[in-house]
Structure formats: structure tokens, C-alpha cells
Write a structure and sequence with these properties.
This protein is mostly helical and 91 residues long.
Amino acid sequence: MPLLKPLNEHLLWKGAIQKANYPEPKKWALPMELPPLSYYGRQVPIDGAEYKKIQYKWCEPDGLVKSYNIYSAQYWKGVRERQQLYRLRAS
């Protein structure tokens, strides 16, 4: 069930961020898919040949999860773009 909108919304307290009308935070298009650490919520970790099979399926050769590498690359691309924009505005 969705949350109901308050009747007197104009009377509610607003913080500085709400008053400044900042845009909504950016949502990443890629889901963060992580490999399972144990089966069916058990406390016993997966190890041995089964762990190697899961690691091959989910991870890059450097050991990081494949979806994380994509997410990380997008993040650092955005950082570089923001740095360039900042430097152009500052000069």
C-alpha cells in the first residue's frame, strides 16, 4: 500500500535540503549482483571446487565481482567528467 500524502503539506516542517529543491539522487541502471556466500542462508560457507565454479561464473580474474567492475568504471567516469567541469568553471 502506498504512503498517503499529508493533508496540510504546506504546514509540515522542511529541512534545508528540501527548501533548496535539490534534484533527486541519480539511480544506477545496473543492479549490484553478488555471488552467494552460502546456500539457503546457512552459516556454512561454500568452499572447494564449488567455490571455484561460482568464482569463475561471477568474478573477473582479479577477484572482483563482474557487476562491481562495471559500476566502478561508471563511477570513475563520472568523477573525471565532474573534475573537468569544475576545472572549466574555475578557470
